[in-house]
Amino acid sequence: MTTRTQDGSAGDVDHAAIGSGYPAHRRPDARIAQVIAEALDGARTVLNVGAGAGSYESAARSVTAVEPSRSMRAQRSSGLPPAVDAVAEDLPFADGEFDGAMTLFSVHQWNDVKAGLREMRRVTRGPVVALTCDPRLVCDFWLYGYAPEVLDTEARRYPPVEDMASALGENVTVRTVPIPLNCTDGFNEAYYGRPEMLLDPAARQACSAWSFVDDGARERFDRNLRDDLASGAWDERFGHLRTRPAYQGSLVIVRATL
After folding, report:
1. The dihedral of CA 242, 248, 254, 257: what is its sign?
2. Residue 10 lies in a domain
3. What is the separation, in whole angstroms, between the first and last Cα of the chain?
């Protein structure tokens, strides 16, 4: 049985508590949107599961959004169609109803990832596309030296790519998605060359893993990163990232076809 928070969110995050910073800090990046559009391969009708406020829906022609969180549904632009209140594990659609389906930065918040992906496969006759992070690579990011609790949390929450592939069927590919230096979608790795951005509490709040650590961990992170930026220690170790055009981190596209 899928459990929900008071807000209606499925899984382990209450978006009513943390979702207010999403519109300002989680703006879709055009280059990532292009990768998503290519993976959808021209699908006309697309299901977006865990749609949130509607980021990246421009990557498809016609979108049906599913979002269990009341607060996230309320943040959708007036130019987007209202989202259906449902969860990935129990989609209220017929077999093969959609040309394609996508779920973006969402699977790590589901109660049962395999069941949700099987449901997406059931209602989709074309490509199923998941933008997610490979948990084996999450802790390779420089942030681990400052906030290990945050990245350990992310690594535990993201499902193994192999498990996702087995739920989706036989024809599955996994592609690393390059993260641009000036990425407008503010997940943790988007700030690989702009560490100062993560000193903004609102930017951190837009990444759900920060909600799982206590105030002490956030304060230590803030203090240690500020000290290293002031002393030049961060730039001595990682300054080369400030001019790297793109970063190959844990961000991947998992794509399945029939």
Report:
1. positive
2. no
3. 28
Total of domains in the chain: 1
Q: Does some domain include residue 172? A: yes
Domain, as residue range, for 105: 15-257
Query: pTM here?
Result: 0.89
Query: How confident is the model over 11-26, as pLDDT tens digits?
Result: 555 544 544 556 678 8
Q: Is residue 9 part of a domain?
A: no
CATH number of the domain where residue 76 is located: 3.40.50.150
Q: Which long-range contacts (CB under 8 A, 24 or more apart) does 214-219 make?
A: 217/147, 217/149, 217/150, 218/147
Q: Mean pLDDT, 10 residues at a time, over the chain (258 residues)?
A: 50 51 80 97 97 89 94 88 95 98 95 97 98 98 98 96 96 98 97 98 92 96 98 98 98 97
Residue 107 lies in a domain: yes
Spatial contact of 9 and 50, defined as CB atoms under 8 Å apart: no
pLDDT per position as a tens digit, 70-120: 988 998 888 888 999 999 999 999 999 999 999 999 999 999 999 999 999
* Structure tokens belonging to residue 37: 């559009």
Two structure tokens written together for 60: 């498809």
Tokens found for residue 118:
């099987």
- Provide the H-helix boundaries in the chain: 15-18, 22-25, 30-40, 70-74, 113-122, 148-157, 161-168, 201-205, 215-231, 233-238
